[in-house]
Amino acid sequence: MDNRIPPKVRLIFCFIFLSFALLIFRLSLVQLCSQDTLSKIALDQHNLIIKLLPKRGTIYDRNFKTLAFSITVDSVVCEPRRVKDRAKAARALSSILGISQNSLLEKMSQDRGFCWIKRKVLPEEAAQVRRLKLPGIDLIKEPERVYPNEELASHVIGFVGIDNNGLEGIELGFDRFLKGSEGFRWTVRDSRQHEVPGYEIKEVLPNDGLDIVLTIDEIIQNIAERELEKAYKRFNAKGGCIIVMDPFTGDVLALANRPTFDLNSYKFAPLDAKRNRAICDFFEPGSSFKIVAASAVLEEKLVKLNERFFCEQGAYKWHGHIYHDHRPHGWLTFREVIELSSNIGTMKAASRLSNELFYQYVKRFGFGRPTGIKLPGEVSGVARPPRQWSKLSLTSQAMGQEITVTAIQLAQAISVIANDGYLVTPRIVLAIQDRQGNTVEDFKPQLQDKVISEETAKVLRSVLKGVVEQGTGTSADIKDYSAAGKTGTAQKIEPNGTYSHRKFFASFIGFAPAENPRVVIVVVLDEPRPFYYGGTVAAPVFREVAGEVLRYYRVEPEGQKALFARK
Amino acid sequence: MNIKRSLIIVTFLTIISLFYVHQQSLIYQIGERLKENEIHCSKLVDRNKVLVYNILNLKAPINLEKRLENKKIVLNMPRNWKAFAKNNKRQGGILARILSQGKVAEASGL
């Protein structure tokens, strides 16, 4: 028997052997040399990591009324490589979404795996796109911030951008608390790139954002907004702001600005409307700043309340410069000087102070530095140190010139007189809470230094009560309640550096009731026309707001004491 | 004998494999059902949020005032009112105490 293998069979065996050898060689190459690259490609194709977005925290007012929260809306997305008939898809989407066909075609022609067509569309638009069932065109869910009160407290709350990052107000200042942190789900996908349910490898849940409780009271905010709006329109003002604050805790109960904007459509609002004038704009306060000079001379016992000052019949030359009163006055007691807002009387009283001492009081009242309210963008105003002063600076500053302040600083300063002499930090956030209502961080009221004594504060309250009863602020007199305050009318500075005779800041700062204050209110109107006196323009706003707030707080009407019955 | 044993092993392995495939298929089906329920649930939550937004928007003081203004309805807070202090002392009989729970009526807007 011939055991020899035929050459043909041997050849075939050799061929098979070589083929296998080549295959083994190739496999070895794949396994040893390209292992990392190829396994990465395979894993990328097989694995799917889905981002789990956290829910942004809710913003509440002090009574837990919702001011801002998030809902889920649809966004239209495109996978350009999967779109079959681009022209048809562009035509159909263009009519629904209101985007030009060219723009849509450009987006769909990109060599990319994903692109946005339109983010955060209306529910009707989403339903129409869904009905089209276009291949490569999909809808994904995205969180959208909504503000049910629209323009109410818009400058305090602020707003978020398209990616839910805070851009203004509390949304920006407390963004790190509100936004939370992302989670993820590591799972596998099928050949159609869809998640295979039930095959999760790892899941890390997102940490939802924390809720913020503000000191704002929705009702008081609404009252303040309404009355400011009326004055803003009535006096054709360029702008305005109002602050309602608790003088003992520093709680900002309302903070409104004009012009304003709707938080749900902030993109269409002009930049000027988005500015929080109450903390970002500084101005010369005019006569409302006389409370600082009056506090200083009374606290230092340099002036007695019934001491008489000659007010020079309205014109007084001081270091070569002539000062005027808005109305000529002769002899006035110091009480009358403040009540009638005499510049000359105030100057004469303030001139008994040294520059350094007056500057100390300016600083102690909180001027020249940010108040520390937890809102972004607060400015400090300008209070220059005495070494930069001229001979006129002390007397000019005593009547509210040569110094700039913000409305929130004025609220802080008038609170000193209302709360028996303490400088209190304005508070805008009460607490930070988690979803279950547990307090994560509590913001306590912050009383700073004692600025003036209780006796001085009491005397000043009676003087400021006189301003409302028989002085320049009679328009601030509230029916059924006593009130105290100070008017201010400040000339704006023209671009050439001189004081304007046409442009003014009208202000009123005050509190009510006068003896046992519940609220301090600051009203500032920028360039009101045709009337511009603080007592005419701003004081009535104070009267309306204070009256309604006190009735809302159910403060016993002072004129109705006899009716009060205790069982 | 060997063939018989092999057949048993093959049958056993086949049954095990079928069970395994069935189990995987069940996992997938349950996962799909869970996913559907999750989507349905999230749709309801989303719808709820939109409705809550609508309610809050309707209840917003700014909008309530706008509607009153449009209908020319003027509402004022009471100018004159009378306040009665709450009496915390429990008075009356047992029944009155239970029914009142220590509260005394408050009147305002007289």
Question: Can you offer a commentary on this structure?
Answer:
The complex is a heterodimer of chains A (567) and B (110). Chain A is α+β, with helices and mostly antiparallel strands and 567 residues long. In chain A, 34% of the residues lie in helices and 22% in strands. In chain A, strands 2, 3, 4, 5, 8, 16 and 17 form a seven-stranded mixed β-sheet that branches. In chain A, strands 10-9-21-20-19 form a five-stranded antiparallel β-sheet, sandwiched between helices. In chain A, helix 3 packs antiparallel against helix 5, helix 9 packs antiparallel against helix 20 (539-552) and helix 12 packs across helix 15. The radius of gyration of chain A is 35 Å and the shape is elongated. By secondary structure, chain B is mostly helical. Residues 101-110 of chain B have low confidence and may be disordered. The chains are: A alpha+beta (567), B mainly alpha (110). The interface between A and B is large, with 37 and 34 residues.
Silhouette of chain B: rod-shaped
User: What share of the residues of chain B does DSSP label as strand, in percent?
Assistant: under 5%
Strand content of chain A: 15-25%
Work out the helicity level of chain A: 25-40%
Low-confidence stretches of chain B: 101-110
How helix-rich are the residues of chain B, as a percent range? 55-70%
**Major sheet of chain A, described briefly?**
7 strands, mixed
**Averaged pLDDT of chain A:** 91
| General form of chain A | elongated
Oligomer: heterodimer
Radius of gyration of chain A, in angstroms, nearest whole number: 35 Å
Helix count of chain A equals 20
The averaged pLDDT of chain B comes out at 79
Order of helices and strands of chain B: HHH
**Main β-sheet of chain B: number of strands, strand sense, barrel status?**
none
Low-confidence runs of chain A: 561-567
